[in-house]
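Board notes (copied after class):
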Amino acid sequence: MKTNRNSKRASIAFGDAEAFKLVTEMWRDLECYLPQELYEHVSGRFRRRDYEFVVESFPSYGLSLMQQPQDGGVILLNGKTFSMGENPQRTAELVYAVSHYLKKYEFESSTVYTDEYRAHASRFSFRKAEKWCYRLNRNLAAALESRPLLLTEMRRTLRWLLGDDPDIPGLIDRGYFGPGVNVGVKGDQTDSQVKFSLPLTITRALRTQFDTAARLMPATLFHYGISSYLHDSELVPPPGIPGGGWEYERFAARGAMDLYYHRLEMTRGCKVALVPKDAKTLRAIAAEPMVNSYFQNGLGSLLVDRLLRKTPMLDLRDQTRNRVMAKAGSNVGSLATIDLSSASDTISKSIARALLPKKWYRLLSLLRSPRYCIDGEWRKANKLSSMGNGFTFPIESALFYSISRSAIVVSLVEDQGLSIHEARRVASSHGHISQGIYEPSVYGDDIIVRSDMFDAVCKALELCGFWINRRKSYSQGLYRESCGHDYYGGNYVRPVFLKRKISLITQVFTLVNQLAHPEGLGWLTERWDVSFRNYFRYVASFTHRFKGLSSTFGPFCGRIEDRFISVLIDELRSRDHISWDSDGQRWVYHPITVSPVLGKNPSELGYALKVFHRNQRRSPREFSNTTYALVVRGKFKLKYPKRGTDAKGLASLPSVELGEVPGNLDRWLAILARYIDLHPLLKGW
């Protein structure tokens, strides 16, 4: 480990002034494409560091441009009228791309958007949702009874999705500790092996269930279970206990748990933590008790598989479906996107009790935290669960799917005169919804339905106590947004965000690579031939402030790594990352890419493949610190592709069973190296 002096040299001074300078340089690159009066007005706001403008007014203005028809008229911003110029659609897209740049940035010098302000806004939102759930728990049952057909259909759909009986053995088998903190677990203790060595926190209801199971089991089961576990031998059930049956599964799980039984530490429930979200607020998540979290994660994994087996419209492992449908909806207008505010925080116990099969509701009640602690104060939880609970995401997806599909069935019956059986058949036809299929597509709180069913579905969701985010729900016009992708008229128009100050060289790499990737700023270059020269020069200037950066990566740093990083930074400073492609008549960026340095040791190869595969799921705009750490350790090399390299037409990485070295190793390594070398943005790193 290097000295503190070198560690200090690794950090750079980056504050609000630099953040505003970044967005100003980006805006300068758009000057020749925008109406001059609009350009000067926004530039003046940036120069004055108008925090309210970049956090609220400008993002709202940019979004309103995408929602209104681009007819060449005038637009209103801060009480002033501006022309849309000769190309209204280009103006709208360029303004929208820049307008959200600082919306999620954590400012340090603002007198309004302080840490206290964000924390207060988050707590207010959390308590508001809790009060809403309290009222729903008292009044929702009567409201649902007023729509008997809808209520019956929602219950029927959920029973079809989940079944009557939970798979308890499967839940136990899939249980695991997640990577986050829990009650009784600090930030540096999140490794699964470390968690097993700590006192295991658990709620009273779940602890009581363990006590009951222990009293019902014969003493011989404990003997066999503990003996087998201590000696690391195969669990062989005693006579009379059928192997592979429920009794054996319960015996095996209980035998393993008994070693930890004396370390079970009861707690009242979960603790609410606040994590970054945007410039105005933080996000409230729940740190669950350890044992509860273990089984919550197992149940969540079980539900994800079960929902996918029932319908492809509930594939919770992949957001591509919703993104493709949002693009189709923006192109033809036949699809509507629905977004919910505080979705998981407004799932009341009453809606779960009214719709879920009884055994499922009892299981969720057993695993959930009945109370929560916020600011040191314990309160009764009126919601079913919060973010941080392992089963929240699949359960909310199942609820929203059942409500949406049931609303469609009822609408087909009451408004179009179909029989109930015919309506159910139409609403459950698997296929692409844009081809006349009525089945909704759901990924968490991102819901896509036919545009003519938008009002019916929204009314049903509101009846069940959920808040429709009208600013992010679209049934008209050419703009759609779902699962982090924005589209206008079938074209990708997602803006980019600066979420935190630059303190690592990997963040500089990310900003550089945003210029090249179609999901960064690349779509602006492809559609409107925008050259971000000023923005790139300012981003590259940050590399001069990094000295001895590898000292932040602990025992893997040293002279070799320092020289390697120094060469890398010098190359970044001297290299022009943009050139004009005369054949394609467009600007081409040359981003930073990565290639593996794999030794002959199969274990190292397997590790490298696992890391690569795991990080495929990350946002393609992010250059992760994990990747950089591997570079410093010599596992990977950073390099530049040849000028003019284009990623279009490249075959995707072939699938491989990780943990095993493929038979034709040389061919696999060649494919892997080619894929990574030519990819424009470390896809998924």
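Comment from the instructor: The longest strand covers residues 269-276. The radius of gyration is 27 Å.
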